[in-house]
Hints:
There is one protein chain. The protein has helices spanning 7-13, 52-61, 88-97, 131-144, and strands at residues 14-17, 22-25, 42-45, 48-51, 67-70, 83-86, 105-108, 111-118, 121-128. By secondary structure, it is of the alpha+beta class. It has 2 domains: 1-86, Homing Intron 3 (I-Ppo) Encoded Endonuclease, Chain A (Alpha-Beta Complex), CATH 3.90.75.20; 98-145, no CATH class. The strands form 4 sheets. A 3-stranded antiparallel β-sheet has the order 7-8-9. Strands 1-2 form a two-stranded antiparallel ribbon.
Amino acid sequence: MSPLPSAEKLWEMFDYNPLTGALIRKQARIPQATGGKGKYITISVDSVPYRAHRLIYKWVTGCDPELVEHLDDNGRNNCFWNLRSSSLGSNAHSRAINAGNACGCFLQKGRWYARTYVDGLRISLGSFLTKQEAYEAYCSYHTAN
């Protein structure tokens, strides 16, 4: 994986729309998506291709992530609320536990529960009346951590 460009370079080259997840090249004023219908969007910077979610994570935070996960498991949804930094170990663990439940929420006895796993430990985030409330708790936890 190529090292990411500096945050300053990304800020000079792109605007970012957090509502749509579009990274927009300032000179062209159009979203810079390539990569066809694959799982991820690819954008070239100085003729080097990068996955858009990695560029966006760095554009927003200024930090180089080891990996970036899509919380909803949709690799083309690059809204920042849907991205989180992770390590190789937690990414693999998250994929295994979330294979049938990408949002970290589940329904049990008429209540929605939110939970996540960190370093192999299950963390309960509470029970809620709606799936949306549970999902917001899940997203809030991962945004803060």
